[in-house]
Amino acid sequence: MIALPGDTSASYQLRPPGGGDDWRARADGATLRLVPPRVSHVVPMRRDAEYDPRADQAALSAVVHFEDGSSSETVVILTAVQLEHWYAQIGRLLASRDAVRQRR
């Protein structure tokens, strides 16, 4: 925030964190919205994933962690194609892990 509404300014004068173009918002704050914290990382929960044959998709419970330290539970929905892609990727990750363990 560069300037608050008052005697010298009829609006909020703002600049994005990290730089960027300045912009203005109405003095009543009607056009301002809270900026949600950014996602830090997502961790699968220790729950069984579920497959819905009617929708042909899987649901995986996960926790989304935010940079402000908060978290929120959610569900990752995977289509059949995405599920096969993840299956292949996880298979490669497990093979890489096993190869590293065998070299030790």
TrEMBL record:
Residue ranges, annotated region (Disordered): 1-23
Protein name: Uncharacterized protein
